[in-house]
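Our example copied in:
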Amino acid sequence: MPHAIAGRDATILVNQIDASEYLNEFEIERSADDIEVTRFGAIDKEFLAGPHENTVTLSGHWSGDDVSLDQVLDDTFGDAGDQVVTICPRGSIAGEICYLTPMVQTSEDIDVAADDLAEDEWEFRASSVRRGAVLIGSDILIAGAMTQGDPVIAPAATSKGASAHVHLIDVDGTPTGVTILIEGSADASSWATVIAFDAMTAKGFARKVTSPVAVIPAQLRATVALAGGTSPTAQVAVCVARHKR
C-alpha cells in the first residue's frame, strides 16, 4: 500500500496569520506551455517547455472577523505586491515538506446559502512554486534571547540559490527586534549566514531570494533572536526552498 497522509493535518500560512483554521482545501496547479520546434523532415513533432503557469486555490469558511483570513486578503486584494503563502501538507513542523509561493490574488468567490455554511474561495497566480522544508515550525513558541532550529540536511550543497519565507504570527512583550537568520554549514560545526531578514517588531511576513547562483550548503538551520522588551515571546514559522533551476 502506498504511503498516504491525512489532509486534515495541513497548515497554510498566509502573510502574518496561520490561515489553517479558516480553510479546508487547497489546490496547486502547475503547467507549462508547449512550444513546437519541429524541424523540416522530422517524422514526429518536437516541443520545448515554455513558461510555467502556477495557480493556487484556497477554499474554506468565510468569517468576517477583523483578524480573519478573509479580512487580510480583502485588505490586500489588488495590491501590486505578492502575498507570501506557505503551504505545508503535513503541518508546519520543523523538517516537514512545504511549498513556498509568492502570489498575486486574482479572484475571490463568496458563496452563502441560507441552509449551509458561508464559504469563501480565493484564487492566486503564483510567480513560482518552490518545494522546500520547514526550518522552524509555527507550533514552536520562541522565548529567550536566541532559539536555533535543528538542521535540515540535503544530500549535497546546491548552487542555484534559494527562497525563504518568514511568518511572524504573534509577538508579545514588545521586543525591540525579532531577527531571523538562515544559516548554512557543510559539516554542522561551522555556520555562516545564508539569508538575513530585517528585524521585525510586530506581526508581519517577509520573503527573501538569494542570487540565482548562490551556493546553498548541504545543512541549513534557522535562528531567531529576540531583543529588548519584557520577557518577549514570538510565534514564528521559517521555511526555505532550494532552487533547482
About this structure: The radius of gyration is 20 Å. Helices lie at 69-76. The mean pLDDT is 91. Residues 69-76 form the longest helix (8 residues).
